[in-house]
Amino acid sequence: MPPDAKILIVDDHQDTLYALENVLAPLGYRLARATGGDEALKHVLRGQVGLLLLDVRMPGVSGLDVVRYMRRLEQTQHIPVILLTGFGLDQELTSAAFGLGVADLVLKPVDPWALRTKVRYLYDAHQRHVALQHEVRTLRALVNDHTLVPVQREADAHGPTAPAAS
């Protein structure tokens, strides 16, 4: 994922999308929007999503359905998700959300300062995680390359084998 991965905001109400974009704009991250679960999945599967702000209840594919699908795929299972709900928290929703590995469950209307703080922390932590994974892959490739090279170097160091003198 590139360092300029976007934050995807998903809600079926345009006024909520607009309000959330205005809350997050001061952070300076790239923002994208989707108005439903299907559209959100398309964005996520195309890549470059570093965090998902997702409404729980939407017509068609719900927010929980989106998260269930994301968690089944290796390429999307580690993207942090903040679920938003305007219907209050109940034990079933809370249990399902956190059982799917959702980072947070936030009530609407949101507290702008608190949401910006959570988004900044989760987005930056995810970006560091992705960069670290990339570095580990690079180092593993180097180690694999170097484990093959010493065998050849050792053979070259001894030169051609001379017959033993009797």
Please give a structural write-up.
The chain has 166 residues and is α/β, with parallel strands linked by helices. The chain contains five helices and five strands. Helix 2 (37-46) packs parallel to helix 3 (63-72). Strands 2-1-3-4-5 form a five-stranded parallel β-sheet, sandwiched between helices. The mean pLDDT is 88. The chain starts with 5 loop residues before the first strand and ends in an 8-residue tail after the last helix. It has helices spanning 14-24, 37-46, 63-72, 91-99, 112-158; strands spanning 6-10, 31-34, 49-55, 81-85, 104-107. The longest helix is centred in the last third of the chain and has 47 residues, at 112-158.
Determine the mean pLDDT.
88
- Strand % is 15-25%
The total of beta strands comes to 5
Low-confidence stretches: none
> What's the arrangement of strands in the largest beta sheet?
2-1-3-4-5
User: What gross morphology would you assign?
Assistant: globular
The largest sheet is:
5 strands, parallel
Report how far apart the termini are: 65 Å
H/I helix tally? 5
State the helicity in percent bands. Answer: 40-55%
Protein topology:
Blueprint: E1 6-10, H1 14-24, E2 31-34, H2 37-46, E3 49-55, H3 63-72, E4 81-85, H4 91-99, E5 104-107, H5 112-158
Parallel strand pairs: 1-2, 1-3, 3-4, 4-5
Helix pairs in contact: 2-3
